[in-house]
Amino acid sequence: MEKWYLMTAAVLLGLTVRWTVSLNSYSGAGKPPMFGDYEAQRHWQEITFNLPIKQWAKFINPDWIALHTSRGYESQAHKLFMRATVLIADLLIYIPAVVLYCCCLKEISTKKKIASALCILLYPGLILIDYGHFQYNSVSLGFALWGVLGVSYDWDLLGSLAFCLAINYKQMELYHSLPFFCFLLGKCFKKGLKGKGLVLLIKLACTVVASFVLCWLPFFTEREQTLQVLRRLFPVDRGLFEDKVANIWCSFSVFLKIRDILPHHIQIMISFCFTFLSLLPACIKLTLHPSPKGFRFTLVSCALSFFLFSFQVHEKSILLVSLPVCLVLSEIPFMSTWFLLVSTFSMLPLLLKDELLMPSVVTVMAFFIACATSFSIFEKTSEEELQLKCFSTSVRKYFTCFTFLPRIIQHLFLLSVITMILLTMMTVTLDPPQKLPDLFSVLVCFVSCLHFLFFLVYFNIIIMWDSKNGRSQKKIN
Amino acid sequence: MAALGIATGGSNWFSALALGVTLLKCLLIPTYHSTDFEVHRNWLAITHSLPISQWYYEATSEWTLDYPPFFAWFEYALSHVAKYFDQEMLNVRNLNYSSSRTLLFQRFSVIFTDALFVYAVHECCKCIDGKKAGKELTEKPKFILSVLLLWNFGLLIVDHIHFQYNGFLSGLMLLSIARFFQKRHMEGAFLFAVLLHFKHIYLYVAPAYGVYLLRSYCFTANKPDGSIRWNSFSFVRLISLGLIVFLVSALSLGPFLALNQLPQVFSRLFPFKRGLCHAYWAPNFWALYSALDKVLSVIGLELKLLDPNKIPKASMTSGLVQQFQHTVLPSVTPLATFICTLIAMLPSVFCLWFKPQGPRGFLRCLILCALSSFMFGWHVHEKAILLAVLPMSLLSVGKAVDASIFLILTTTGHYSLFPLLFTAPELPIKIVLMLLFTTYSISSLKTLFRKEKPLFTWMETFYLLGLGPLEVFCEFVFPFTSWNLKYPFIPLLLTSVYCAVGITYAWLKLYVSVLTDPPVGKTKKQ
């Protein structure tokens, strides 16, 4: 592509920001005995390196503490090694996927493609969690992105393979599995179930089964082992939610302590029902009218539904929603930027616990400036830019005075930003009152949850009202 | 909302660039800092806690005050803000004190004072004509110049990692250059006089200023063929310039003159006891000279032409800052370097006098003076290459020839700064930032001058590409070989010699281009 050097500059800038953030503290630094995610990852390296596969799943055996003499190991050289592994994994999997995705975007200028790549690479949430807090999310998100790329450009088998790898790397990717399933199923239906469609369906099924078998083969030797692994991956015993997270159950528990009132299996049932009810319309729509654009938006709304209503959700799971939102950044820059800012804000308590205040503020500001100058987001708040034209026209059939939507949204944005800044300053400078020690974390979660509900409604509106536009346009043409 | 839109809209790319690089500087806060950090902390302590009469005598710490008085006053002003961050850093006895608040304060002071540099870049952009401007923003000379200056790799790592205050000092110099372009000569002279009393290293470029002001400002008109018109001499201008310099110097040195401390101040400012080359070999002529001497001595020993007993034990390559003697070639004294520097500067100064070409000619002479003093100076630090690189950026967006010289000078100059950051966590940062700046500068200038002949000959391309393998060898291969214990100085030696070749080449090429440029009367006005 022309101006490849600007794309290279964007990637190198992304790498610089990542590495400089990694110079800061990490999760659980110097905090024995539990330490944090950093120690967790090191521990998993220790297990997988030292122990045969049979014993990977049953590590809390008191006899094995002797082997774990390196538990809690912290040193400068080791930190460098760990950080370097994250960077290399990112460089090999996530970053190429982002660059390729942006290069393949249709109907936008080269400058906008490079700007998209820059903004996606500067997204603060992923950088702060992977390079600050310490995790390897870029691997699973990278594989998922390869999956999206493959499936959107009709490389269905490779796309499904990539996505299976993503799921087998981190089971949280199951949040994205329904849209993949519906989109591919829709494609098969479109091709006709009696001919090419059936062939495609069979090929996909084989690919998925084969990749799962390959990954899980070593663990299938004993039934007990398999069950053990499943229990580890899906800890249903741990309850509806843990710690403070910006989803419905945690926010609702401010008013009513569901966790204590309802029995365990009812909680799971309710969560299950709400999740599926909220994502069903979008998924059905995608199966009936598969399109790459619909696929991307459905990824957003499904992941958001799961985040809001599922059980045992962690704050970091918002990254699973942020990735699809990054993908639609070039289509609705204003709302995407807003969402991505809120998603980073929702992780504020976690970031403060890891002493990442300075990198957080700096990366959020950098991201905001990059988006604002690249996409001129404040000029793009008309109805058409927000993709709400059809919706507004439909509503105007009943309420003729419904013309003030853009202005409402602009004011809401200002209000939201002010609230987020105020809450951040309060959390950093003030001490919470004695009776309510978690006041600020709960406030952050509650405010974020309200935002996410608003976005859930917004994205679902886009999805549901999109086809009408498509169909009516086709009729006119 | 509309106002916010205009403020952050695409037309305000300059603010976005400036803000962006400022945020990057904030991210560099937790990186490694050198002993210069302690130097400045010590100066904060000295100027805050002691009376003026003690400033240039205080020697509790080895890092004594060796900058001119204005810088001391600057540190004094900073210290009044510092006391709100951490009072302990202002104690002269707290050697190597670096609490997190101290670090935060010092780093923020550098970032904050860079505002002057940003303003200077803004003014310099106004002096660039946009004749070659395409419709694309990223192809406009102003945009490219802003990136080359604001995001300059050397300035970023020297100021915000290694720790120094070159940002605002370079800002003063660039601002004075911009004022000359804008025909505001008195302001330019004033700014330069102030700059001299902040950091006396800028004496290196004083000849350019002096000759230019005398020739093109005091003589108000030229004869048609460009030569000097003696009767157009303006005494008023000369007197006013002299007055400016006198007043600034009086303000700076006056208090110390009154205290009879001038000799002490000068002995601090100009210490000649240090060795010819700094701890790391600056890639200048003397690096090549010393390398040649070493090669000849090795050959001499092998061929039994030299007596091993007569060779002095002290080796320059041990990295200590001390007196030195060469073995085969004649030893170099400070006087010899001074004379060499003067001789090297003379042609460019003569050119400025006999063939004045307005501010552009002045700029080229300034760069040549800076480079000549880098090449032959005594106790030159690699950081001094920035003195030449930053003004050269202004020329690089003008002509293709200048762009080519600029790229060679900048790439080798920046690479020679690598040994300053020798810690492992900073390794990815310096490599990635270097790649970022180099790819951007080369590609954008190539795009700007795509209609003219290619910027580099095959030899130059080969040389620049050779920097990659050199880096791989010095940082990744050599430390794991057995030679690392016997000859630990080899990476530094190789880096210096390789870069010295490039910098010498750029210097000579620039000289040739200046000397062979036709005089003003015979060419179109620029």
Automatic annotation (TrEMBL), chain A:
<dbReference type="GO" id="GO:0005789">
    <property type="term" value="C:endoplasmic reticulum membrane"/>
</dbReference>
<keyword id="KW-0256">Endoplasmic reticulum</keyword>
<keyword id="KW-1133">Transmembrane helix</keyword>
<keyword id="KW-0328">Glycosyltransferase</keyword>
<comment type="function">
    <text>Dolichyl pyrophosphate Man9GlcNAc2 alpha-1,3-glucosyltransferase that operates in the biosynthetic pathway of dolichol-linked oligosaccharides, the glycan precursors employed in protein asparagine (N)-glycosylation. The assembly of dolichol-linked oligosaccharides begins on the cytosolic side of the endoplasmic reticulum membrane and finishes in its lumen. The sequential addition of sugars to dolichol pyrophosphate produces dolichol-linked oligosaccharides containing fourteen sugars, including two GlcNAcs, nine mannoses and three glucoses.</text>
</comment>
<dbReference type="InterPro" id="IPR004856">
    <property type="entry name" value="Glyco_trans_ALG6/ALG8"/>
</dbReference>
<keyword id="KW-0808">Transferase</keyword>
<keyword id="KW-0732">Signal</keyword>
<keyword id="KW-0472">Membrane</keyword>
<feature type="transmembrane region" description="Helical">
    <location>
        <begin position="318"/>
        <end position="341"/>
    </location>
</feature>
<dbReference type="Pfam" id="PF03155">
    <property type="entry name" value="Alg6_Alg8"/>
</dbReference>
<feature type="transmembrane region" description="Helical">
    <location>
        <begin position="80"/>
        <end position="102"/>
    </location>
</feature>
<feature type="signal peptide">
    <location>
        <begin position="1"/>
        <end position="22"/>
    </location>
</feature>
<feature type="transmembrane region" description="Helical">
    <location>
        <begin position="268"/>
        <end position="288"/>
    </location>
</feature>
<feature type="transmembrane region" description="Helical">
    <location>
        <begin position="197"/>
        <end position="219"/>
    </location>
</feature>
<keyword id="KW-0812">Transmembrane</keyword>
<feature type="transmembrane region" description="Helical">
    <location>
        <begin position="356"/>
        <end position="378"/>
    </location>
</feature>
<dbReference type="GO" id="GO:0042281">
    <property type="term" value="F:dolichyl pyrophosphate Man9GlcNAc2 alpha-1,3-glucosyltransferase activity"/>
</dbReference>
<feature type="transmembrane region" description="Helical">
    <location>
        <begin position="114"/>
        <end position="131"/>
    </location>
</feature>
<comment type="pathway">
    <text>Protein modification; protein glycosylation.</text>
</comment>
<protein>
    <recommendedName>
        <fullName>Alpha-1,3-glucosyltransferase</fullName>
        <ecNumber>2.4.1.-</ecNumber>
    </recommendedName>
</protein>
<feature type="transmembrane region" description="Helical">
    <location>
        <begin position="399"/>
        <end position="427"/>
    </location>
</feature>
TrEMBL record, chain B:
<feature type="transmembrane region" description="Helical">
    <location>
        <begin position="429"/>
        <end position="449"/>
    </location>
</feature>
<keyword id="KW-1133">Transmembrane helix</keyword>
<protein>
    <recommendedName>
        <fullName>Alpha-1,3-glucosyltransferase</fullName>
        <ecNumber>2.4.1.-</ecNumber>
    </recommendedName>
</protein>
<feature type="transmembrane region" description="Helical">
    <location>
        <begin position="335"/>
        <end position="355"/>
    </location>
</feature>
<feature type="signal peptide">
    <location>
        <begin position="1"/>
        <end position="18"/>
    </location>
</feature>
<keyword id="KW-0732">Signal</keyword>
<dbReference type="GO" id="GO:0042283">
    <property type="term" value="F:dolichyl pyrophosphate Glc1Man9GlcNAc2 alpha-1,3-glucosyltransferase activity"/>
</dbReference>
<feature type="transmembrane region" description="Helical">
    <location>
        <begin position="461"/>
        <end position="483"/>
    </location>
</feature>
<keyword id="KW-0812">Transmembrane</keyword>
<keyword id="KW-0256">Endoplasmic reticulum</keyword>
<comment type="similarity">
    <text>Belongs to the ALG6/ALG8 glucosyltransferase family.</text>
</comment>
<dbReference type="GO" id="GO:0005789">
    <property type="term" value="C:endoplasmic reticulum membrane"/>
</dbReference>
<dbReference type="InterPro" id="IPR004856">
    <property type="entry name" value="Glyco_trans_ALG6/ALG8"/>
</dbReference>
<feature type="transmembrane region" description="Helical">
    <location>
        <begin position="143"/>
        <end position="158"/>
    </location>
</feature>
<feature type="transmembrane region" description="Helical">
    <location>
        <begin position="361"/>
        <end position="378"/>
    </location>
</feature>
<dbReference type="GO" id="GO:0006488">
    <property type="term" value="P:dolichol-linked oligosaccharide biosynthetic process"/>
</dbReference>
<keyword id="KW-0472">Membrane</keyword>
<comment type="pathway">
    <text>Protein modification; protein glycosylation.</text>
</comment>
<feature type="transmembrane region" description="Helical">
    <location>
        <begin position="12"/>
        <end position="33"/>
    </location>
</feature>
<keyword id="KW-0328">Glycosyltransferase</keyword>
<feature type="transmembrane region" description="Helical">
    <location>
        <begin position="104"/>
        <end position="122"/>
    </location>
</feature>
<feature type="transmembrane region" description="Helical">
    <location>
        <begin position="489"/>
        <end position="508"/>
    </location>
</feature>
